[in-house]
Amino acid sequence: MGGHFSNTGALSTLTQEYRRRPDFFRGACLFACILTVLLLVFIFGEILLKAWPAIHKFGFGFITGTQWSPNREVFGVLPVLIGTIASSFLALLVALPLGLAIALFLSEDFLPDPLRQVIRFVVELLAAIPSVVYGLWGIFVVIPLVQQYGTILSAHFGFLPLLAGPAYGNSLLTASLVLALMVLPTITAISRSSLVVVPYSLREGSYALGATRWETILRVILPTAAPGIVASAILAFGRAMGETMAVAMLIGNSQRLSWSLLSPSNTLSALLANQFAEADGIQISALMYAALLLVALTLVVNLAGEMVLRQTQRATAGLR
Amino acid sequence: MKPKPLHFFSSPKGETSFFRLLRNRFLTGLCIALSLLTLVPLISIVILVIRNGLPLLSMNLFSQLPPAPGLEGGGFGNAIMGTLVMVGISLLLAVPLGVFSAVYINEYAPVSPVSSAVRFVAKLLTGIPSIICGVFAFAAVVMTSHHFSAIAGGVALAILILPIILLTTEQALMGVSSAYREASFGVGATAFQTIWRIVLPDAMPAIMTGVMLAVSRAAGETAPVLFTALFSQNWITSVLEPTASLSVLIYNFASLPYAYHIKLAWSASLVLVTVVTMTNILAQLIFSPKHR
Amino acid sequence: MSTEEHPIQIPNSTARPLELTDDFSPGETNFIKVDNFKFFYGKKEALHGINLEIPSRRVISFIGPSGCGKSTLLRNFNRMNELIPGVRHEGDITIHGTSIFDPSVEVIALRRRIGMVFQKSNPFPMSIYENIVYPLRIAGQGDRSVHDETVERCLCSAALWDEVKDRLHDSALGLSGGQMQRLCIARAIASSPEILLMDEPCSALDPIATAKVEELIIELKKDFTIVIVTHNMQQASRVSELTAFFYLGNLVEFDETRKIFTNPSKLQTEEYITGRFG
């Protein structure tokens, strides 16, 4: 981040040099910049414009409505909104301990370095696998597993609303488990980088006071890196909310409200993926409205994550 | 002198110390176990993709069209073609825009309102869900032209990769030593000559890395092309008509009740994962260490 | 073992007699005993068979040029060097006659007995109060009244109480550099150790803060055996009673500080003291 400015001293004189001779290329580059900025305006403007009929017609009721039936031209996204947040939250719940464990594993020296490199490579590989392949794998591996064990679970714990039957394979739980896998690299990468910047002197200080390794980790290192870990969780949450294909293939696409993790559900992005191709008329507009909500949600979450992250960088800079 | 008892350096409450050490070991074991646990799904994915994808793998896959539902035989040549065309279109749009913008914000005006705005936009674009790129292309291209098309898919992918290209190029330009720029100005070169002949060539490996990463990302994405390029059973003949892509093929065929189509989906996954991983690794290899 | 055999002729010192006889019990002359101790970083031998006996409740300074092994030896007293991969040692170090490398010795218990203060002050990013009770908490001591008492006692010992008593629950990172280092000293004595190891504790401090820490060190020797590694020879002469001069992994000379600085018996020591190398 600060890197931009490390060489501006040298550049500023050069910039003056550039400025003295305005050229065509400079104009072209400036034009590209303006296009880039206008693009963002255009993206939001276009979506807003196309969503306008639905916004005008349904207003706030769109968000609180629980029915989504294109035939009757009734559109409400509350179940989908809940599904989006629930699946992302559940994914985070699973991914955070795992991601944190890997981040610690990568930043501490429990095992020799080659093995750590392997794990690191594996996590990077996880990030590179296309979403749709996760979906395909989920259909053939996770859905049967969730169906099988979900049935057993709901048979024994069905009195709990969260595990009420009947257990579907295409469910909130399935989608969340696969989402967890997909956001794991985000959590690991950001947590790891906030763990490795914890100064060695703090570890040393703790060991010298007679702390064990894990007392040091739990009481000194994790609290020091906490803002970065929180940021990683927030950004992972944002990613999970925007993740489309795997979720669309696994979540069951049902707009019915249910407490059970074993019931089908839906998310904003899966809704868009499933309905856009065949939509027309006011349904397109409603989908645009939903897209706008998705953008707003992810934007807020991402900005919050960025802010926490920036705060972290400032705080750890103070530790140096 | 009388030596102190050997247990002088054991903790006064020996038991507490014992449990502390026990807990220490337990947590270490737990941490290692959880880390290794994540290997399980990954290995499962890799094995399944290879095992289910390999049997069908042959040249026919790349040269033939997908079969009609219920029939067997054929491949997904058109989907590979479609993916290539759309990734190509997206590069054509995003590379000039991204690289030129990066040149401006790093070379011409590092500290200016325009540059801050561009950096901000790039950051925002990185964060928006990929399906939003599709939604925009649907609104801007499909709804205007009344056709699903390769162009619309390419536009959606271009928005997806623009921030990747822009930000990696900016990083690449930052890595170029200012001594080169000074030397070039010293011999009387213009800004254009300096950037075009000195700065860009020097930054080229790092820019290429960004482009490769963008290609790998674009090839693997489904959401942006799902309802912009849609799908097609036939070879692409024009960029103005619905176009098949590997990722959408996987999505469409995965939920079909026909065994052969599902096998095709696995084979397509194998091809896609291989291409994406290879591009990724290649990107890291191109990247010359001096820019680090 | 009797005093006569002791390599350091402490009672015979003339110019400024150390008050060693006051509370000096002969049994404690070899409180810390380093016995033919060798230390290796991988293949590199950093210490070549050190023999050294340190009496209790004194300030001992280790001096010598960079890389001479003084810090390495210091960090062996509380086995901090074990955190570095690929190190090993030969020989022995005993404290109170107990080998610190004995399998029955628990490192975490050993380190509670031996406090350490580092070159760069390293307060944890928590409150002043929490910094000091940290060693108590990890040992399972959760009693609030014990915490309160320890915080006040340690801060008083570290001459920091008056400066921070009104903001005990503020972040320790808000303190000045000198205050941070004194907080680290307070934290190091919170687990009631007998020995304090100081690894160039003032090298990052300004002269005024340094003076305060030095005053503190002299004060603390009533209760602790203090071993201090320093590059600053004035500091060694100001605070310590005994000085060990290390060079290239060897202990060249160990004697009363006054003698080391006025009349060293080895040429190398003299050359170093007078600034001809190092």
Describe this structure in words.
The complex is a heterotrimer of chains A (320), B (292) and C (278). Chain A is mainly alpha-helical and 320 residues long. Chain A is 77% helix and 1% strand. Chain A folds into two domains: 1-58; 59-319, MetI-like (MetI-like fold, Orthogonal Bundle), CATH 1.10.3720.10. In chain A, strands 1-2 form a two-stranded antiparallel sheet. In chain A, α5 (78-107) packs parallel to α8 (172-196) and α8 (172-196) crosses α10. Chain A is globular, with a radius of gyration of 24 Å. The two termini of chain A are 17 Å apart. Mean pLDDT of chain A is 89; it is low at 1-9. Chain B has a domain at 77-245: MetI-like (MetI-like fold, Orthogonal Bundle). In chain B, α2 packs across α12 (259-286). Chain B is globular. The termini of chain B are far apart. Helix content of chain C is 32%, strand content 23%. In chain C, α7 links the parallel β7 (195-199) and β8 (225-229). Chain C is globular. Chains in contact: A-B, A-C, B-C. At the A-B interface, α1, α2, α3, α5 and α6 of A face α1, α2, α4, α5 and α6 of B.
Strand fraction of chain A: under 5%
| Residue windows where pLDDT falls under 50 for at least 5 positions of chain C | 1-27
- List SSEs of chain C in N-to-C order: EEEHEEHEHHHHEHEHEEHH
In the CATH hierarchy, the architecture of the largest domain in chain A is: Orthogonal Bundle
End-to-end CA span of chain C:
36 Å
Q: Please give the radius of gyration of chain A in angstroms.
A: 24 Å
Number of domains of chain A: 2
State the assembly state of the protein chains.
heterotrimer
- The unreliable regions of chain A are 1-9
Q: Which class of secondary structure composition applies to the elements of chain C?
A: alpha/beta
CATH homologous group name of the largest domain in chain A: MetI-like
CATH fold description of the largest domain in chain A: MetI-like fold
Q: Tally the helices of chain A.
A: 13
Number of strands of chain A: 2
Shape of chain C: globular
Mean pLDDT score of chain C? 86
Q: Tell me the number of helical segments of chain C per DSSP (H or I, 4 or more residues long).
A: 10
